[in-house]
Design a protein that fits this description.
Chains A, B: It holds the Pfam family GntR. Two copies of one chain form a homodimer. The first copy, chain A, is α+β, with helices and mostly antiparallel strands and 249 residues long. Chain A contains seven helices and ten strands. In chain A, the strands form three sheets. A six-stranded antiparallel β-sheet of chain A has the order 4-5-6-9-8-7. In chain A, strands 1-2 form a two-stranded antiparallel sheet. In chain A, strands 3-10 form a two-stranded antiparallel ribbon. At the A-B interface, β7, β8 and β10 of A face β7, β8 and β10 of B.
Chain lengths: 249, 249
């Protein structure tokens, strides 16, 4: 650790100074987490927010700009600023990077294979950054693109955040929207780790490929607005006619 | 095509209205392309820019915010706004997504295998969106992470943009910085298409894996600030102890 007492950002214990607009940004984010405003709802205008929060309109604008860039809010020209919904097309495609070669991005359909409450498997535990005996819902699904099964997903959801799933037999195709509307859990950030692997007999059976074919394995951790790891997902993806797309600007 | 004469954004031929700050943003970007300001150089302050461009300071600020989010500019607190350099750490890692499992991101070293001027191969032509007889430099390299060869790269550079490479025997490890400083070509956006594939005999020899092992193949097109496709790169990546990392927020 550096010994410079002005070096607050590197200090684990010291105070971190934040510009006013960052504080407002975090405050508004927290209000959304607490459902002061719900997905799809319009926020008060900048003038009203500034008055209520006791800051300048410029500061509110800067804070809302940040939340808009982060796609937490969305602006409709001449109407106002809204809490983003995961049904928003942009938002949906943002999290579906598997694309059929030579085709436009398409949202895959889902076939639910099973949904069970289990003791967390060892390979899943690390993703949630916890120890011990947590229980998770395990969801197995196949995804369909271009009229064929192309992804086999194992999805893990901590029981503590998703209690109301007990007894559920069906799930909608677009889970992030479901988490948001039913559990007040908005997926705000995802981390994907992508590897290549050889198809097992199970992959071959579920995806209609040959044992020994090359597949992509994507391990994804999804974090909510307030930074909780709420979902861990292992996707086994056909790669013959499909690719994972990353666009960086 | 829609027939609504107000639907300018969807019209191929109609005028597209842009907010003033977007026009300023594009203008400043163009000035950077033309090297009015070079990588690392400080821009005039907002007041001076506003006066020179005949717009309000607020509009300049909004334009610079956009270019800062896009990492074309970077701000140094209390100093000013600078044209980003590709030596900037953020910027370097942003484009190096192959990570050794369980380790922090590290910039791979490079071993140059060959550099030749060739007729563009068929599988490369489409990436550049052109037809016919273009010539390209083909650069073959191995990349080293964690003290082992982990990536075999084939890099294609159009002769028309990189003429001065003729006769070159050596290349620096960080090519994007080299393109920027030597050719005034700043990589502004990349598109990666990721697939899984089976190691060939060539892969096995170059990467020290076994024929039949699973590898990641990443095909990348890099675009310059003014939207030209300036590089096409095929990377064959070991996946046993490495992964491709994607963080989305």
């Amino acid at each position: 650790m550096k010994n410079n007492r002005f070096d607050n950002k590197l200090s684990q214990t010291g105070v971190v100074f934040q510009p006013l607009y960052t504080q407002v940004e975090n405050h508004v984010k927290q209000l959304i987490v607490e459902q002061r405003w719900k997905p799809g709802e319009m926020l008060p205008n900048e003038f009203q927010l500034a008055e209520e929060l006791g800051v300048s309109q410029g500061t509110v604008r800067k804070a809302l700009n940040g939340l808009t860039s982060a796609k937490i809010l969305s602006r409709r020209q001449g109407v106002g600023t809204f809490v983003s919904e995961h049904t928003n097309q942009d938002s949906l495609y943002r999290y579906y990077p598997i694309i059929c070669d030579g085709k436009a991005p398409e949202l895959p359909k889902a076939e639910l294979l099973s949904l069970e409450l289990i003791k967390v498997p060892k390979n899943v535990l690390a993703a949630f950054g916890t120890e011990g005996n947590m229980k998770v819902f395990e969801v197995l699904r196949r995804r369909i693109l271009n009229n064929e099964f192309c992804i086999f997903e194992k999805i893990y959801l901590p029981h503590t955040y998703f209690k109301a799933l007990e007894g559920t037999q069906e799930l909608p195709h677009t889970l992030y929207h479901f988490y948001q509307t039913q559990f007040n859990l908005t997926v705000q950030a995802t981390t994907d780790r992508i590897k290549a692997d050889i198809a097992t007999a199970e992959d071959a059976r579920l995806l209609g490929v040959k044992k020994g074919d090359a597949l992509l394995e994507v391990q994804r951790i999804a974090h909510s607005l307030d930074g909780k790891a709420i979902e861990f997902r292992i996707s086994r993806c056909r790669s013959d006619n499909y690719h994972y797309l990353v666009e960086s600007t």
